[in-house]
Amino acid sequence: MRVTTIARAAGFLLLFAMFAHAQNPPPPAPIVTGIAVFGNRITKTDIILREMTVRQGDTVDAEALAYCQERVYSLGLFNRVTISYPPLDSTILLVEVDERWYLYPVPLLGVVDRDIGHWYYGLGIKHENFRGWNEKIFAGFALGYDPWVSLYYANPWIFGSEQLFFESNASFARTANKSALARGSGNNFDENRYGLGATLGKRFDPFRSIALTLAYRHYEVSEYAPGRTASPRGVDRYLEAGISARHDTRNLREYATEGMFGSAGVTKKGLGGPFDFTVYSMDLRGYIPFARGTALALRGFTRVSAGASIPLYEHQYFGFSERIRGHFEEEREAESIAGLSAELRLPLVYPFYLNVPGMPMKEFALWRLGLYAALFADAGTLWNRDGAPWKGTVPGGYGCGLHLLLPYSFVLRTERAWNETGRGEWVFEIGAAF
Fold first, then answer.
1. For the chain, what is the radius of gyration of the CA atoms?
2. In the sheet where 78-84 sits, what is the strand order?
C-alpha cells in the first residue's frame, strides 16, 4: 500500500513539473538586431566587424561571443576587446576596444633562427594600422649576425566588397651559409640574397583565403666553389611563382587554445633558369579545448622539393627556424622535411587585464597577462629524392615548461626538454611553439 502511494505521488509530481514547464518555458535566447563598436578612434569599424562570426539575426551565444572577442583581439590592433549586450529579447551587441599604439620607431634586437648565440640589432619604422584599415608598413635594417635591409607593405582589404588583399616586399640580406654540404671541409662563407616579391589574394570569409605570389630572387656567394650555386659564375638569378590556400579558425593567433589552422602551397622556382624545381608545402594545426581552459595543440608539417636539380641553399633544415625540442641545437639538412608536435596547455593564471598606473601613454597602460604550464613532444625527419622520410632514425624529444603571455602579443617560453636517450637541455624562446 505504501509503495503504491509513493508511486502515485511521484507520478503526480512528474506531471506537475511537466505542466509547469509547458506553462513557463525557458526564455528564448536574445536575437542580435545590431552591432555597435566603441573605442576605435583610428581603426575602421568594418575591419572589426568582418572578423566577427556572430551576425545580425543570430541568437546570442556566450561561447560564440567569447570566440569573437579572441578573433578581434588576434588582429593585433587592440589591448583589450570586450563584447556585451543588454538582457533583452532582441539586443544590440556592444563591442568595445582599447586601441594599441600603431606608429613608432622600432629598436630591433633579437636572435637569428632561434639561436641565442646569434644576435642582431638595428632600427626600423613601423605602422601597424595605416589609415585605420589594418595596413602594415615597415622599413628597417639590422646589423650584427646576418645583417639585412627590408621594406614591406601589406593591405588586407582592397577593392571594397571583393575583399582582395595585397602584400609586397623588397629586401637584402647577408647571411651565413647553413649548409654543411656546401661548406665542405673549409671555412664557412656568406650568402648575399636580394629579393623582390608581390602577393595578391582573395579572402572568402573570416576563415578562408587563397593567394598568388610572384617574386624575383638574386643569390650570390662570397666565395665560389662547385655546387654552391647552380650557375658556374657563383650568382643565381631566377623567378618564382606560387599559389597557396589558407584556413584559419584559431581563437587567438598568438597562443591558440581552440580551432584549427591549415595552409598548403605549391611554388615553382627557376622559371627558365639554370635550375628548375618545385616545392610543395603543408602545415596543419589543431587546438582541442577541454575543461577550465586546458587545450591540446597538435601540428604536422612538411615541405617537399621535387625536380631535376635542387641547389644546396634551397635545402630544408632542423636546427634553425624549425627545431626539435630535445635536439634543439642539432643541425640537420636535406631536400625535404616533415615534423610532428603535440603540446598540452594548462592555464595556471588564466589571461586577465591589468591597468598599470603612471604610464605616460594610455595605449601602454593596459596589459593582458597569463601563465600556462605545458607538456610537449616533438619529432621530425629529413630526406633527399633518393631516400624516404621513414628510413633511418627519426629524432624526437619531450618535456615540460612555462609559457608567459605578455602585452602586445608577446609569449615567453622556458622549457626543459629531453631526447629519446634521456639527455636534457633548457629551451628559452620568444613566441609560441606553434
1. 27
2. 31-38, 90-99, 78-84
User: Is residue 67 a contact partner of residue 53, using CB atoms and an 8 Å limit?
Assistant: yes
Q: Is residue 432 left, alpha or beta, with left meaning phi > 0 and alpha meaning psi from -120 to 50?
A: beta
First to last CA, the chain: 68
Residue 293, SS3 per DSSP: helix
Give the global pTM.
Answer: 0.81
| Range 259-288 burial, b when 16+ CB lie within 10 A, else e | bbbbbebebebbeeeebbbbbebebebbbe
Here the cell at position 263 is 595552409
Beta bridge partners of 143: 121
Give the three cell numbers for residue 201.
589574394
| Helices and strands, counts by H and E, the chain | 4, 21
Q: What is the largest CA-CA distance in the chain?
A: 106
Task: Name the E strands within 147-294.
Answer: 148-158, 164-176, 190-203, 208-221, 235-248, 259-269, 277-289
Count CB-CB contacts under 10 A for residue 12: 10
Please check whether residue 65 is in contact with residue 93, taking contact to mean a CB–CB distance below 8 angstroms: yes
Task: Give CA–CA dist 180/328, Å, rounded.
Answer: 17
Q: Is the pLDDT of residue 111 over 90?
A: no
From 121, 148, 125, 123, select the one nearest 136 (Cα to Cα).
125
Q: How far apart are CA 330 and CA 179, in angstroms?
A: 13
At 392, is the secondary structure helix, strand, or coil? coil
CB neighbour list of residue 98: distance below 8 Å, 6 or more residues apart: 39, 78, 79, 80, 81, 366
Question: Cβ distance 100 to 78 under 8 Å?
Answer: yes
Of 171-180, 227-236, 252-261, minimum mean pLDDT range: 227-236
Backbone angles phi, psi at 378, to 5 degrees: -130, 150
Per-residue pLDDT tens for 345-399?
A: 999 999 999 999 888 888 888 899 999 999 999 999 999 988 888 877 899 999 9
Where b means 16+ CB within 10 Å and e means fewer, 175-189 reads bebbbeebbeeeeeb
3-state secondary structure of 206: coil
Grid coordinates representing 142?
639590422
| Residues 307/276, Cβ–Cβ less than 8 Å | yes
